Amino acid sequence: MLKIAFHPIYKHPLPEGHRFPMEKYDLLPKQLLHEGTCEESNFFQPDFPEKDLILAVHEKDYFKRLLKLELSKKEVRVSGFPLSQELVNREQIIADGTIKACDFAIKYGVSMNIAGGTHHAFTDRAEAFCLLNDQAIGARYLQNKGKADKILIIDLDVHQGNGTAEIFKNDNSVFTFSMHGKGNYPFRKEKSDLDIELPDGTKDEEYLKRLKSTLPELIEKTKPDFIFYLCGVDILETDKLGRLSCSIDGCKERDRFVLQTSHDLEIPVECSMGGGYSKQIKHIIEAHANTYRLAQKIYF
Predict the structure, then answer these.
(1) Where do the Histone deacetylase domain residues begin and end (predicted)?
(2) Backbone angles phi, psi at 205, to 5 degrees
């Protein structure tokens, strides 16, 4: 059964005019239920994770100040969000969704988190809508519990996973692969184990060619026993913050290839949604919904 982390706390309101489309976290499960892709039994509600699981990734002082709402004005500004208790709760619950989804992925082959993909969160700071790095926390959970040894993080959000790269920069047990826009945020990039930088305006053909010529060899080289897939849909031509020019069909084929490859090789995969900032919310929902439709088709 496809298991999906969702919690209504994702609807935390933001100031009017804020560019982060929070409504997608509410609309996406409604769409999946409406069209029959999912049933209520597919969804589970995460809660607060054990603090030690977060501290396996994030520095104690940073997490302590985050919980006490004691970040500096500069730190809050860089995070992109107004700091509040609701936001800090939300970030912890997102991380728990990914942690629990890891176990479901081991059981069923694949699992999803409606939110997550908070790849700009560093060990000691928040950045760009990301306060806690959910997939990094999930990776350490698997390793510390003896559920996985070698992990591959496939980050196909339009923005480089700079926080994830920093967290695992000296760790050979977690391979970080980021394919992203060269000219896009972050403008000072970290060094992943493998970075593929794409020029502005890259379309489906070139995007898929680079991915399909890279991923199979990468998996053969790294031999992971668990995959995290960050499937942001901000690679779309319609995206306000992305600078690539992929179509919804191209984005769908990207997801199909990653999921089919993971399925065929029998490597569990946890998917976190990541970014999506198209002007029309229908484009965001359709592109994200395709990932769930494909997971159902390929695995179940």
Answers:
(1) 18-287
(2) -60, -50
**Cβ density class 178-192: b for 16+ within 10 Å, e for less:** bbbbeebbeeebbeb
Separation between Cα atoms, residue 180 and residue 173, nearest integer Å = 22
Contacts (Cβ under 8 Å, ≥6 apart) of 31: 285, 289
Mean pLDDT for all residues in the chain? 94
Our CA dihedral for 33, 38, 40, 42, rounded to 10 degrees, sits at -150
Burial of 74 (0-12, 13-18, 19+ CB in 10 A): exposed
pLDDT at 132 over 80: yes
For helices 281-299 and 248-264, angle between their N-to-C axes, nearest 10 degrees: 20
Q: Which helix (H) or strand (E) holds 113?
A: strand 110-113
Comparing C-alpha atoms, which of 76, 141, 133 is closest to residue 104?
141
- Please report the pLDDT score of residue 200 as a whole number: 97
* Cβ atoms within 10 Å, residue 256: 17
E strands, 159-234, in order:
174-181, 194-198, 226-230
List, in order, residues 6 or more apart from 121 with CB less than 8 Å away: 58, 127, 130, 131, 132, 133, 136, 163
> Which segments of 8-68 are extended strands (E)?
43-44
CB-based burial of residue 34 (10 Å sphere; 0-12 exposed, 13-18 middle, 19+ buried)?
exposed
Structure tokens at 64: 């302590």
- Asked which of 4-8, 51-55, 97-101, 182-186 is least confident by mean pLDDT, the reply is 4-8
- In 10 A of CB 213, how many CB atoms? 9
* pTM score of the predicted model: 0.95
Helix (H) or strand (E) holding 110: strand 110-113
* Separation of first and last alpha carbons in the chain: 7
Domain annotation for the chain: domains and CATH numbers: 3-299 (3.40.800.20)
